[in-house]
Structure prediction request, 74 residues.
Amino acid sequence: MAANSGPAAVSEDLVREHAAGWTRFTRLLTIAVVCVAVVMLMFVLQFATGWGFAVFVMLAGFATVGILVARGRL
Prediction:
């Protein structure tokens, strides 16, 4: 309502739940961006070095992302 301009009554639990969900989403988005960057690097490298080295870099990049995610660093 337009007449009621006071602060919204929101429970602290709802705010914490929303913050936790937002943190999970941003972490997932960060992981997705890193994985897309690894794939794009593979496409660039395949022109310069050939498919063999590019696939190796892609697999090493995905392994690194997996390790970082498992350790909670990414």
